[in-house]
Write a structure and sequence with these properties.
This protein has 381 residues and is an all-alpha fold. It has one domain. The protein is built from 15 helices and no strands. The two termini are 35 Å apart.
Length: 381
């Protein structure tokens, strides 16, 4: 696998929990819920918290500024450098939950409805992504005039741009043009895999009725269960598979199990059994990321049991951070890159000035996320 300029370590190294350097950005591309009555503020809170962990991970990882600033608070930098990146598991679990929740609404499914669903998904996550990608390309060009650093991507070719637009840049071996966009490709693969299996269950196995719709979800679990177990104990242990959905499918399936459990279409015993398999896989071949995924599912289920899932936090700011988390994910790296480049070119970088510049970069990332959300993402929704 090729390494990328925005991400100097190969992903086979990055995704090992005992080695730093994951190239993941702020948050997941979860299906949007336009109806406010259907929003789940607790999951918005989880998304907001996890996205901030990822932004701060990139803040202390990329560019020359972190090298100067980490001297001031090494323990904090070390935690964000090595540990905060595992917040990606929150997005995998929630991604599985929301995909399962969306598919549960289908009374029937055919090739046309599948195509419409795929296009709706791509439109929702792809158009903001393409807008942010254009910003990232411009940011790389501008940063190149101020500094020479491995975080800056080379000028993209036409085929490279087309591969990015199709979420195939990693599969085809192209350098990523921004940090974290590997997740979008994996998320889209996971969605397509789940949708395809649900189509098989819904249209070819179960009857076209409400009872058939409920049965389809049960069949989906039977179809996906073996794949998830294979992911946990085989594929997820081999970094050669990390450009494919199957590598991450064990965590994603945990979100589908969570939704089925909450909707009472799956017995508690089966859900507990799979949860124990996730924990066992994370302990047998130590992978703390799987334990984070298990913890995410447990916390979300307990929130449902206690009523917090739909009622807490009743805080507009926290809920807003959850809504803009995808836009922050998309746009934060170009901002970090530009602040690093300008600071090292226009000022004498000491420890204190590096800390100040990183603080500015963090605030500007949030502001840029707000701008992208209101100018593009919210309009698409």
């Amino acid at each position: 696998m090729t390494s990328t300029a925005t991400n100097p370590l190969p992903r086979s190294i990055e995704l090992n929990d005992d080695v730093a350097g994951v190239r993941f950005a702020a948050t997941a591309a979860q299906p949007a819920i336009a109806d406010k009555s259907l929003r789940l503020p607790f999951l918005d809170f989880m998304r907001a918290l996890a996205s901030q962990c990822i932004v701060l991970h990139h803040l202390v990882f990329y560019g020359p500024l972190p090298e100067r600033a980490q001297v001031a608070i090494p323990v904090v930098f070390d935690w964000f450098y090595h540990k905060a990146r595992m917040a990606v598991q929150v997005f995998f679990v929630l991604g599985g939950y929301f995909t399962s929740r969306g598919l549960a609404k289908y009374k029937s499914m055919n090739a046309r409805s599948v195509a419409k669903t795929v296009w709706a998904r791509y439109r929702r996550i792809g158009i903001p992504y393409l807008a942010a990608l254009a910003v990232a390309i411009l940011a790389n060009e501008l940063a190149r005039t101020w500094m020479d650093h491995e975080a800056i991507s080379a000028r993209p070719t036409t085929l490279q741009l087309l591969a990015h637009a199709a979420f195939l840049h990693d599969v085809l071996g192209y350098e990523a043009l921004s940090a974290g966009i590997w997740y979008l490709a994996i998320d889209f693969q996971l969605f397509l895999l789940t949708l395809g299996l649900f189509w098989i269950a819904r249209s070819w196995i179960c009857k076209p009725s409400v009872a058939g719709r409920n049965q389809a979800h049960s069949v989906l679990l039977y179809l996906m269960g073996p794949l998830a177990i294979a992911s946990l104990f085989w594929f997820n242990r081999d970094p050669n598979y990390d450009i494919w959905a199957i590598y991450f499918f064990g965590s994603y399936f945990l979100g589908i199990v969570l939704h089925s459990l909450i909707e009472r279409s799956l017995r508690v015993g089966w859900a507990v059994a799979y949860l124990l398999l996730v924990v066992a896989a994370g302990l047998v071949d130590p992978r703390p990321r799987l334990l984070v995924a298990a913890g995410t599912a447990i916390v979300a289920y307990m929130a449902k049991r206690t009523g917090l899932l739909t009622t807490w936090p009743n805080n507009r700011l926290v809920n807003y951070f959850g809504r803009i988390s995808y836009s922050v994910f998309l746009i934060h790296f170009p901002v970090l890159l530009l602040v690093n480049a300008w600071s090292t070119s226009h000022m004498s970088v000491s420890t204190s000035s590096a800390l100040y510049a990183l603080s500015v970069a963090y605030l500007l990332s949030l502001i840029a996320g707000v701008g992208l959300y209101h100018s593009v993402e919210s309009r698409i929704r």
